[in-house]
Queue: 2 jobs
Job 1
Amino acid sequence: MLTVHAHPDDEASKGAATVARYHAQGVHTVLVCCTGGEEGDLQNASLREEGQPFHGLTPEQEKEKVGQLRAAELQASAGIIGFDEVVMLGYRDSGMADTPPNEDPDSFFQADLDEAVGRLVAVIRRTHPQVVITYGDDQSGYPHPDHLRVHDISVLAFDRAGDPDWYPDAGDPFQPSKLYYSAWSRARMMAIHEALLQRDGESPFDEKWFERPNQDHRITTRIDASGFLWARTGALLAHATQVDPNEKFWFGLSDDELAGAYGWDDWILARSLVGDIPADDRERDLFENVPVEALHGEGSGRS
Ligand SMILES: [Zn+2]
């Protein structure tokens, strides 16, 4: 299994429990992180308190220190989730839309599309994932330039990795079987919102969240993540500069409460070379229909 993400911390906030579950079953798990998250600001104000690493720093010093810490945070997060390998694709964080970092020639936003796809194709040809996970085609709810690019290169890499005419120097062709989009479902948001309202009388989910386009009708696959929510929580906390441990949006419900409210990770099957795309959300396994004889390597053979 190979998951493509934009920044360090995206692997923690999207699908971490599903990856942990498959890793526990013996699936070889690869994380591709396209940028180093260089434009991230300090999101955890408690680190500015006395005795904490960001105490007394200027904004410039703060930014530099965040940049230095993010690689180690990513390694810690990936270790908790159970990624067997972390591959940095090597681009610079493009920042939010229409900001100066978009213009940086090293940014993911400025990268030549075919060249970026080639880097991902090389990883696919080396690691042989049957299942590739990326972001969806409709990201209007959060149109970060790097997240849009993750989608674009993943879809093209899925199509080109098995084509010997593309990137002949990037390894022997290998065709993955299935491509999934991660989804933050409306159903999940509503369940958390209602559980917090019931318990506390308030919720961090306000109207702007519910104005995001509802794509729940596109969900094909629900993975029971209820026994692996510790991976999501632990991985988020590992990104100490990016995630405030007191933030209700992330941690309002305990793992047990979340499991009770909504223990699923939701996915959209976008491409399949091994059977039809389900018309509803009945699928319960990302490897469904992946034929055993197509599996690569020893052990359980799933990857
Ligand atoms: Zn991101």
Note: The mean pLDDT is 95.
Job 2
Amino acid sequence: MFVDSHAHIDGHEFDADREEVIQRAHAAGVSTILNVGTGDPHSGAFERAVQFGAKYSNVYTAIGTHPHDASKYDQAAEDKIKTLLQSGVRIVAWGEIGLDFHYDNSPRDLQMEAFRRQLRSARELDLPVIIHTREAENETTTILRDEYGDARRKGVFHCFSGTSDLAARALELGFMISFSGIVTFKKADDLRETARLVPLDRLLIETDCPYLAPVPYRGKRNEPAYVVEVAKCLAKLHGIEVQEIAVRSTQNFARLFGVSIASIGS
Ligand SMILES: [Zn+2]
Ligand SMILES: [Zn+2]
């Protein structure tokens, strides 16, 4: 049994065949999906994600203002996220939040402010966080240390594509590290080397679909069933059976997000 610990399946990319996508995931052994609601906090995107997740017993939900939308994060957004997080079912994390200095879709100072505010709020609610970080390694770990250093619940660096130094700092801060299809890409030798060094009790797997489909589906729309390819790649790197990656990453997911996944008895 696998868990896709980070997917975006409530969006329009899956409007035509969402049921089939979920069925294909089950058929592939992907028993559980964490759907992450993103977008303009005032657009109804978070309400949509929460409503979608409530319909499926094996779909968990996270919501948070992505760094791309940081310029739209305000008091009303914060109040809305807090209310939704506390009122919905199977809502397990605040995220994805963080810094993206690659695209710079929002000004950097606003990204950093929205990141800090959301970390403080997540801490207040005692929720784990899902971190998105790109080309902002030092700023990300500095802010996490300031705002989250002594938080009881930690979180995950999702879709990890950073340096081995960032991985070491994330682990030191008590976070898990989640790998996506990027780790299967031909040119990702450095990332594979980093993945090999992440201890099995800190490892998660994800698709981040609809983007970043793993080899051999690269270039196609990604979907949760393909997380098995990420697990196969990590199994090879760690020199173990794919089944062990499935069990360990599922246990890690259950522990981090405080849920019980019956099939592994954790
Ligand atoms: Zn992300
Ligand atoms: Zn994402």
Note: The chain has a mean pLDDT of 96.
